[in-house]
Amino acid sequence: MKSVIVLLAAALLAVPQQALAAIGCTLSNPAQDLKYLFPDMTTYKEELKEFPSLKDGGALFQALKARLGGDLDPIYETFETPYTVYSVYKGKARLGVVHGVNVPGKGGVIQVFLWTDPETAAIRRFFFQRLESPAAKGLRAKDFRAQFEGLTLADFYKHDYYAAAEPGAEGDKVGRLRAPALDAAGKPDHEASLRGIRKNLVLLDFFVYGRRFEPFFERARAAKAAKKETP
Fold first, then answer.
1. Which end of the chain has fewer CB atoms within 10 angstroms, the N or the C?
2. Quick check: is 13 in a domain?
């Protein structure tokens, strides 16, 4: 038994660190899960997206970092991390786009999935596939998750703009989101969930929606730069 353990440990040490870090997020049972979300579904398509295989993937990876506003997680947000986009159809009509990401939380990894409108890129539904948190009940609550329905990546970029140029603005939809009561004090997993939703939307903008929300990001970046220059 000891020799088996030693061999397993040696095998793990022999695996390149990048390979160990490339952890993606996929639906546990795509056919069943998607049928639950889309009862009228007739078929679905999976597309694997990886920065190394994308045109200008290195630049896109750096763009992801800039749009998340900080360092990327060394396990769940590496250059090699694979992403799976699910397109759901009824006949030839595309009903929705589903995509999930991993983000680190207080109790372990949080798996955040979005169903977005194929035309507007707005969130139709957001749900957790995996969530181990003291605030799990509140985060999974229907009234909390319903706050995100209809939001787009533009709303998250607008939040950055308002934070720099007009704090507390009525138009800041993301700023008005209410954290669950159990997570209201420190809000670590609420904030991790927000990061997961934002990252999800950024990646979908890269992979599916043709970076249509870039003007909002540029406006927010200009506002933050102007705030830094103000004495």
1. C
2. no
Rounded to an integer, what distance in angstroms lies between the CA atom of residue 175 and that of residue 160?
A: 9
Three-state secondary structure readout of 114-129: EEECCCCCCEEEEEEE
Q: Give the domain extent around 44.
A: 22-229
Question: What is the pLDDT tens value at each position of the chain, 231 positions in all?
Answer: 444 333 333 333 444 444 444 789 999 999 999 999 999 999 999 999 999 999 999 999 999 999 998 889 999 999 999 999 999 999 999 999 999 999 999 888 999 999 999 999 999 999 999 998 888 999 999 999 999 999 999 999 999 999 999 999 999 999 999 988 776 666 789 999 999 999 999 999 999 999 999 999 999 999 989 987 766
C-beta of residue 183 within 8 angstroms of C-beta of residue 138:
yes
Instruction: Tell me the H-state helices in the chain.
Output: 2-14, 17-21, 30-37, 57-68, 136-140, 142-146, 153-165, 188-207, 214-229
The neighbouring-strand residues paired with 116 are 97, 123
**Number of folded domains that form the chain:** 1
Q: Who's near 78: CB < 8 A, 6+ residues apart?
A: 18, 21, 22, 72
Is 107 part of a structural domain of the chain? yes
Domain membership of residue 48 (yes or no) is yes
192 lies in a domain? Answer: yes
The C-alpha angle with vertex 212 and arms to 33 and 173, in degrees rounded to 5, equals: 75
